[in-house]
Design brief:
The protein is of the alpha/beta class and 507 residues long. It has three domains: 7-184, Rossmann fold (3-Layer(aba) Sandwich), CATH 3.40.50; 195-380, HUPs (Rossmann fold, 3-Layer(aba) Sandwich); 399-494, GMP Synthetase, Chain A, domain 3 (2-Layer Sandwich), CATH 3.30.300. The protein is built from 15 helices and 20 strands. It has a nine-stranded mixed β-sheet. A five-stranded parallel β-sheet has the order 14-13-12-15-16, with helices on both faces. Strands 17, 18, 19 and 20 form a four-stranded mixed β-sheet that branches. The chain binds xanthosine-5'-monophosphate. Residues 320, 323, 336, 338-339, 384, 386-388, 392, 428, 462, 499, 503-505 line the site of xanthosine-5'-monophosphate.
Amino acid sequence: MSSKNIVAVIDYGSQYTQLIVRRVRELGFLAELYALEDLHEIIEPGAVILSGGPKSTSDADAPDIDFEWLKSLNVPVLGVCYGMQLLTLKHGGTVRSSNKREYGPADLIPEVCEGLYKDMSPSSQVWMSHSDTVDVLPENCSVIARNSEGVPVSLQWSDRMYGIQFHPEVTHSHEGRTILRNFLALAENLLPFNIGDFKRDLIADIKAKVGDRQVVCGVSGGVDSTVLAVLLKEAEVNVRCIFVDNGLLRKNEAEEVVKNFEAMGVEIEKVDAAERFLTALAGEGDPEKKRRIIGNIFLDVFWDAVGDADMLAQGTLYPDVIESASNAKSKASVIKTHHNRVERVLELQAQGKVIEPLAFLFKDEVRELGATMGIDREILLRHPFPGPGLAVRCPGEVTEDRLEIIRNCDAIFIGTLRKWGWYDKCWQSYAGLIPVKTVGVKGDERSYEWATNLRAIVSEDAMTAEWVQLPYDLLREASNRILNEVSGINRVLYDISTKPPASIEWE
Ligand code: XMP
């Protein structure tokens, strides 16, 4: 994609960086993320945003910016958190390092009513996440906002450069969207972003990359791979869609997936590989090793099924890329290895044999794209389900018995959410297994059985999550049914952990 007139977001490694891209697109403009090594690709952008990041500007390996180049672009520049500290240094100011992190809400009190702070409240909440602070202000800058203690949290330099200490891209910054909109209004000729145009570009890009090669596309029935399969069909490339039943699926899921694809007129080949996965997982309790085993077998199964395929298509999304951090576009630290980022995929990627057409889209955008292709709403609104399936909801060893228990608990919980009209209000929900046996009484007998954890969250693209305040009566109904109907469970827990620090899945 050409960078002319787009908003170039430079990645300094904050976990929120991709959200900046997302917000800019929500405001209707084309944005793309660039790693520092790829700055040469940025030619005539319409605006530049320097993201936040985990480093201190005083670290020996602190990421830098070619300031002369940045100025020569002559477009509006916004430094966010680390980005602002870097701009401060470049303008001759100093930054003070600290071991103490300011993490959480703060008040933003703008000192001006124009530019970045047009149409803003006199005071609003913003989200801070930083250790370093600006110490000595550069001479040629003005303070345009402070916090409630009078500390400068936003600077402006004369040459259309701005800095903000907080993160406007997270929803906890209540007027963050207005600030970004104001910033973008300073730019000229920004290219618009809309999903219809994006689809046309995606299809042209797929055609160009694939040519007449044979593509294998793994489908799971989830939103991402379904949208990908339909997109490949629309691109009229030579594709075989493989659906692997890995034995880690939910109750009746395999049958439903086959039925849904039939209804959409997309041909899929089902491969029954449950035994292969479960045998390979036997005795393994380490979460990362489990993920690698699953990822590698996935690929083995694909290539076994379609020996002569030249390319692999994956429904990887932006958030997957961030969390595995194995993509050159992201500097965020590794949280866990997603199954579609295992070494073999990376090797294939290096050989130019992987296409990931959705890798720059967020979940909601993929849903929007799916809707433009006529995919059923029910499928598009399905909660995300992880590639490694129930394995990540079964801490420790994965066995058939444990999976069966999870399936039964999950079906009851999801059924209850649907019945009470709460399924669509949750971003993701499931039941998992806590492999700890506790004592209980069932009938007149002592029981010694596992516990299940129910999880229901709302989220912004899985990067942060809040647990849902489900009605007690709904929880009571789900719990009673699970305790009565699922053998092997005598305790039901509702997970009230936010992400961070917890993650959505248990592994
Ligand atoms: P966590 O547990 O990291 O999950 O908060 C974030 C989101 O990603 C999903 N997830 C995965 N999806 N392959 C996937 O396709 C994976 O390996 C994987 N691991 C987690 C998870 O369900 C949640 O929506």
